[in-house]
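thoughts on these tokens:
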Amino acid sequence: MKLVNLGAGLEHILDMELINENSVIIDAGANIGEFIEKMRTLTTAKIYSIECSSYNYKVLCEKQYENIKTYHCALVGTKVDKVTLTEYAGLPKADGHPRFNQWCNIYDKHSDRFTADPNVKVVKYDVDTITLGELIKENDIQSIDYLKMDVEGAEYDIIENLTQEEADMIQQISMEPHDDLKNAAMVRKLESLGFVVKSFKALDNPSVGEYYAYKPKKKD
């Protein structure tokens, strides 16, 4: 294994020995493309990016990344036609993009924090959804070399509904946990599907971290 941490602010873990130019990578919670930009320094592999925020999706499209297919929707485990997104926009950061936009989510989390903050605009609107199975079928994906998820709590529903057939296609997963009460059940489900699961502390904040799941190599 050649485990790499993509760095403070990203924190996603991956085994670069499993990635090549023919790999398929799924970026769920693409935001404005920091993960894509980092991966493009490492590989030219095909990336399917999924982003539910209209603002973030517009930024992704404007960047015109090569060998990327971008979806404006939410990745979910249980299929519904629409979900309501809560989107935040604070004062601009140094890069010109609004603060807190990376916290957009479909569970109405974080809203209480910004209710009385005049510098943060909170809007809600409906977005389409896609399941992992639908993404696989629509693009005739045969294998997923890396599934990255930073989806503000939706990862629990996605993993809970992950089928053995879908799991068998996935080589490695990296995701940011958002609910301590749900982490143990998520790890058990991943292990039941044949993954080995490890946790890592974040480089820039040891109080949070990342879960990394991978398929062990079969012995001859």
